């Protein structure tokens, strides 16, 4: 079993400041890596972000694609699906040019259409397009895991895996890590955060009600990726904590999660 993990955090953690300043604070707090949302910000283009991250000595764990229009994966109409695969193809090309080969995708955004095998055919096309660029895709558990489950049940490909969101899993699994238990053998990356049991709060671990002992017990021992936080400071935290203090607490608590995983 791995004895330690690289530790990352999502580039947006709640404090409003330019991208470079957020990356600097993340580096100063002792994190190893950043995960990126693949969208331009006011002062920086998305394609410039990886270079900024690496120049200050951090790795890029993965890029998270925006999930607007992801429901079109499940549409039978070719013209609807073509729009999203064209968009993904452009982003695949951008990412591989920047040395990024792990992408997180949502496969549903509360769609009005049931999971279906037209969607599986569409998802196979997305996976094949990603493979052309030697990119691995991690589909995330969100609100309706029947879409995720149908994809992973029917597409067994080394380039298609799972991004586990701890907060989502507790909310949809009614207190149990249902998605992690089922798909941990295909785990590519993580979204670690805590919640109050009712909403996706994006709390720092141990600031909510999640049972991290249970998380550690279900976590795959063979996992070789990073432990990455997806957290967002509350208004109260922003008022009372400097960003460097918030990030220090976040990393310290991620170390506690790591310790539980190692000792489980």
Describe the protein's architecture and organization:
By secondary structure, the chain is an alpha/beta fold. The protein has one domain: Divalent-metal-dependent TIM barrel enzymes (TIM Barrel, Alpha-Beta Barrel). The protein has helices at residues 19-28, 49-55, 78-97, 117-132, 145-154, 166-172, 178-183, 212-218, 235-240, 243-263, and strands at 7-10, 33-37, 59-64, 102-105, 136-140, 160-165, 187-191, 227-229. The chain has an eight-stranded parallel beta sheet with strand order 7-6-5-4-3-2-1-8. β4, α4 and β5 form a beta-alpha-beta unit. α3 (78-97) runs parallel beside α4 (117-132) and α8 packs across α10. The chain is globular, with a radius of gyration of 18 Å. This is Xylose isomerase-like TIM barrel domain-containing protein.
Spatial sequence of strands, sheet with the most strands: 7-6-5-4-3-2-1-8
List the total number of helices.
Answer: 10
Tally of domains: 1
End-to-end distance: 11 Å
The CATH fourth-level homologous superfamily: Divalent-metal-dependent TIM barrel enzymes
Strand content range: 5-15%
Mean pLDDT: 96
The arrangement of helices and strands along the chain is EHEHEHEHEHEHHEHEHH
Can you tell me the overall shape? globular
- The CATH level-2 architecture is identified as Alpha-Beta Barrel
Protein name: Xylose isomerase-like TIM barrel domain-containing protein
InterPro entries: IolE/XylAMocC-like, Xyl_isomerase-like_sf, Xyl_isomerase-like_TIM-brl
Organism: Thermovenabulum gondwanense
Domain Xylose isomerase-like TIM barrel: 26-242
């Amino acid at each position: 079993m791995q004895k330690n993990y690289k530790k990352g955090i999502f580039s947006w953690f709640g404090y409003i400041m330019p991208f470079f300043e957020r990356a600097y604070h993340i580096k100063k707090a002792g994190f190893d890596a950043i995960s990126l949302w693949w969208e331009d910000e006011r002062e920086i283009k998305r394609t410039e972000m990886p270079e900024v991250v690496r120049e200050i000595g951090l790795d890029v764990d993965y890029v998270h694609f925006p999930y607007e229009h992801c429901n079109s994966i499940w549409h039978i109409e070719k013209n609807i699906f073509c729009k999203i695969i064209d968009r993904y193809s452009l982003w695949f090309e951008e990412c591989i040019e920047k040395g990024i080969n792990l992408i997180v995708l949502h496969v549903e955004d509360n769609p009005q259409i049931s999971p279906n095998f037209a969607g599986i055919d569409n998802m196979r096309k997305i996976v094949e397009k990603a493979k052309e660029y030697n990119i691995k895709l991690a589909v995330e558990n969100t609100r309706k895991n029947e879409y995720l489950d149908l994809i992973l049940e029917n597409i067994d490909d080394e380039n298609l895996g799972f991004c586990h969101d701890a907060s989502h899993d507790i909310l949809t699994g009614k207190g149990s890590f249902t998605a992690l238990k089922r798909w941990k053998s295909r785990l590519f990356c993580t979204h670690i955060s805590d919640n109050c049991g009712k909403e996706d709060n994006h709390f720092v671990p141990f600031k909510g009600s999640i049972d991290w002992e249970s998380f550690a017990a279900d976590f795959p021992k063979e996992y070789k990726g990073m432990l990455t936080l997806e957290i967002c400071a509350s208004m109260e935290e922003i008022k009372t904590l400097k960003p460097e203090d918030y990030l220090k607490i976040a990393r310290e608590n991620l170390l506690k999660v790591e310790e539980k995983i190692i000792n489980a």
